[in-house]
Each structure stands twice: as C-alpha cells, then as structure tokens.
Amino acid sequence: MAIQSTITLNNGTVIPQVGLGVFQTPDGATTVDAVTVALEAGYRHIDTAMIYGNETSVGEGLRRSGVPRGDVFVTTKLWNDDIRAHRGQAAFEESLERLGLDYVDLYLIHWPADGWQQAWDDLQAIYAAGRAKAIGVSNFQRHHLEELLANSDVRPAVDQIESSPQFANQELIDFAHAQGIDVEAWSPLGGTGGNLLSDPRLAAIGAKYGKSPAQVVIRWHIQRGVIVLPKSTHAERIRQNFDVFDFNLTGEDMAAVNAINTGRRNGADPDTFDF
Ligand SMILES: NC(=O)c1ccc[n+]([C@@H]2O[C@H](COP(=O)([O-])OP(=O)(O)OC[C@H]3O[C@@H](n4cnc5c(N)ncnc54)[C@H](OP(=O)(O)O)[C@@H]3O)[C@@H](O)[C@H]2O)c1
Predict the structure, then answer these.
(1) Looking at the domain assignment, is residue 36 inside a domain?
(2) Does residue 108 belong to any structural domain of this protein?
(3) 17 touches ligand 1 (CB under 6 Å)
C-alpha cells in the first residue's frame, strides 16, 4: 500500500489528508462496518458529528478494528442547537461519552449559528484541558473567520467547508490558507444525490491513469492541498477512495478538473442556512 499523505495543522497536530466521512451513514452495523472496513484499508481519519447520530457506532468500529486509538484521527462537531443554547462544554462531554473516548483529535463548531462566539470560548477551554488535540470551525465564511481572528488569540486549526470540482470555493480556501488555517472539503465528491461523478470529463481523465472518477476527484483535492472527507457505505468504494496515493494528476489534468467549476453550491449557504 502506498504511503498516505498528511498535513501538519497550525498547532503541530498531524492530520491524515483523506478521512472517511460518515454523514448519512446509518447508526448501527452500517457505520460500524464502514469504519472497520476503512481502518482495514488504511484510513486513519474518521469525520463524524453529533447530528449524524452515529458517534456510538464510530467508537464501536474503532474498537472493533483493533487499530490503536492513538493511530486514528477522530473529528466530531458541536451542533447548532447546542451552540444556540450555550451548551458547548456539556455537548462535548456527551459526544465523548457516545464515542467511548477520552479525547478527540479535532472538535469543530459545525455551523456559524447564533452564539458561535461563546462556543469558540468553550472550544478553547476544551483544547486547554487537552480533551481535543485541535479545535476549529466549519462552514465559516471569510467574514466569520475575520471576526473570530480579530477576537481570539487561538487560531482555528481548520475550516471544514463545501468544496468539490463543481463548487471549488477557491477564494475562501486561499483566504484560510493565507491565515494559516487548513481547509477540509465536505461533499468532496459532489454530495449524496449529486451528478459530479457521472461527468464524462472525469471518466476521460481517469482512463489515463486506470482510476475512477471518484479517485480523480479525491486526487485533485489532495494535490490542491486540502483535507478530503469522502463518504461511502459500500466497502468496495471505501477501499477505492483510499487507493489514491499511487498516481499524480498532471497540471493539465488539474486544470481540466478546475474547469468543471459552476460556482453553484450543492449544500446549504452558511450565510442563509435555516437549521
Ligand atoms: N461540516 C458540514 O457541514 C458537512 C456537510 C456535509 C458533509 N460533511 C462531511 O463530509 C463528508 C462527505 O460529504 P457527503 O457525505 O455530503 O458527500 P460526498 O462524500 O461528496 O459523496 C457521497 C456520495 O458519493 C457516493 N460515493 C462515494 N464514493 C463513491 C465512489 N467511489 N464511486 C461512486 N460513488 C461514490 C456515496 O454513495 P454510497 O455511500 O452509496 O457509496 C454518496 O452517495 C460527510 O460524510 C461528512 O463527514 C460535513
């Protein structure tokens, strides 16, 4: 197996660049199996959230895999209702309890819901206590990041945002990178129910390397320097999505994937979300 790539976050924490996303992966056997298959395939990074309802099964998958806890990077997130209710620290403890862990590697504010400024104070306390090895945000636009940076000495390690060839979100990525904040791409394959992977341009590029459209897209994310969180519940796809460390897209092929950009989101807009 080729060596996977990692990124060193702004506080020195090392994050594997490809992680398994488990949004819409049902709790129970489906999540336990997805996590164990991923860890067997070499993944060392799982991205969950309280609102995905599967933290318990993520923890069970981790334990069942036999991979040492310290070798796996686990992310979970503080949900909007808990942000609005100022329940940051209590909600974090509940997540740890469900995961069956005594720390997470990364804890994120899931959306910039009203009260996120206090939530950031809560995350800093969690970080200072060593219960999260790194803290960050998700769905923060440039103006949210500017407000946070103007008011906090602790820089978020990451901003997890929508990004795919269809909605590259490159300006926000460039801004975050210029601030020393790494970016994680959500819906990196265009999301559930999307049509990105049937784009014939991706199949044509993949044919040159003997790779699938999904592998081309994941490789594109890796080469543009973002962390990428593909989700699948199918063992074969989970393995396929990690088999991306033995080829390099040429500059021409990177440009051809860039050209797929429509500038239209597949998911909710962080400035107008209503949940
Ligand atoms: N922070 C946030 O607000 C936020 C929002 C959305 C997502 N996320 C994170 O990002 C992760 C990924 O995003 P996402 O779940 O929205 O979508 P995604 O990973 O872009 O796409 C998932 C879809 O692609 C399919 N798929 C996966 N691998 C494939 C392959 N090799 N070939 C063909 N189809 C394939 C999956 O089908 P099957 O499962 O049926 O295989 C599923 O329908 C989430 O799981 C979550 O961890 C975060």
Answers:
(1) yes
(2) yes
(3) no
Range 154-165 average pLDDT: 98
C-alpha 171/C-alpha 65 separation (Å) is 39
Quick check: is 264 in a domain? no
pLDDT in tens, 82-94: 999 999 999 999 9
* Positive or negative: CA dihedral 102, 9, 128, 154: negative
Domain CATH code at residue 89: 3.20.20.100
In a domain? residue 101: yes
- Domain limits for position 29: 12-195+222-234
Does ligand 1 have an atom closer than 6 angstroms to the CB of 139?
yes
Catalytic residue at 52?
yes
- Choosing from 43, 52, 107, 127, the catalytic residue is 52
Residue 11 CA to ligand 1 centre (angstroms): 28
pTM listed for this prediction? 0.98
Report the separation in Å between the CA atom of 4 and the middle of ligand 1, taken as the mean of its atom positions. 20
CA pair distance 123, 11, nearest whole angstrom = 14
Q: How far is the CA of 240 from the centre of ligand 1 (A)?
A: 13
Q: How many domains does the chain have?
A: 1
135 and 74 in contact (C-beta within 8 Å)? no
β-strands 45-47, 20-21: how paired?
Answer: parallel
Name the closest-CA residue to atom 29, ligand 1.
237
